[in-house]
Amino acid sequence: MISQAMWQEVDAVMRRYWHYNDEGKAYTPDTYTPFMAQYVRIDRTYRKKRNYETLVKEFRETEKTAGKGNSDPFPMTAEAEDDAARAELRTLFRLEQELEQLCDPAGIKIPLWEPGNIPDMRKNPDLWVVCSDATASESLDPEDYIPNFVPYLLEGEGKRPVILVLAGGHRGNYTSGDPVCRYFNRIGCHAVLMGHRVGIQKLNFCLDLQRAIRMLRFHTEEWNIDPEKIGAIGLSFGGVVITDYIEQMCFSDVPSQYDPAYREDAVDQMSGTLNAFLGIYTSSDPFLPRSKDLDYSQYPPVFLVLPGADPMVDFQVGFLNDLIRHQVRAEAHLFDGGIHGFGLGDGAIVANGKDGHIPAIALWPELARLWLIRIFGEWQGKE
Length: 383
Fold this sequence. Notes:
383 residues; alpha/beta; 8-stranded mixed sheet; two-stranded antiparallel ribbon; 10 helices; globular
């Protein structure tokens, strides 16, 4: 069993990692990439080798039994595993100090909520929502984290569609989300890069997504957004956030239904409707069984990209089958080969030491553009 001191250090690093991952736009590739290389070493130690989620559960189970006939439930001995991990963490910490910030990340973000008025479903003891780990409610975000989005808004007159981009790896903005935003800009769409909460209680990040949609509608005149052409694209985990939002919340819900202490404002009165959903190597939550009682009436038209060598492809095909059976308008592209996490599909993607990239998968952005034209119709700046 890992010691309490070592657990606290690992937990702190994991929380910082999600924060840095979210702040990717604030760093140059030369500084961000070596940081990530160091993180991968930690990740392999605790997620691949020990399994970080298992470590969390071990710690919580031990915490529950603390004081029950055991005066020292967390032995503080210097275990060999602790020593090795601590050395890695120290290296990572030194590298963090060397990262060169190019800008103030807060300066490029639009906060979704006012400080002190962020709805949190965990504050409501009477509300129970199915989640991937019903016993866990910890957040991986810093205590002062405020959900936000980074705007990629195009200049010029005329209303344009806007695409909310929810990147993979919880908030893998630098590696996957930023290029996707820039692609949609190139085809004449506004884009915003979501910085939603990444805690285990999924309803909180659903509230963040709903708030972002409503904020875009609230600013349609100021930002030249077509309120009937608001789509969301989810890569990997980002798609899970979108499906959870569509399936577990009504678009007309208000945050005070989940957190009575929340003070509503004018943004909360806007529609939370999505007009299009693009899921790239994603599906519904793979940790939850698909209910036969789900209401599919809220689903907008759906576009899916399924890589054939993705370990999650069974869930993705099952999700597609559910959409078709319930007569949701859907288009899907299953590529022979191709592995999870390919982003725009225009570069190498390595798994198990081998490049899993296939050239055909780089066609998906163009296929998505053609699909959006059918769903949205023409728009200004479209190629």
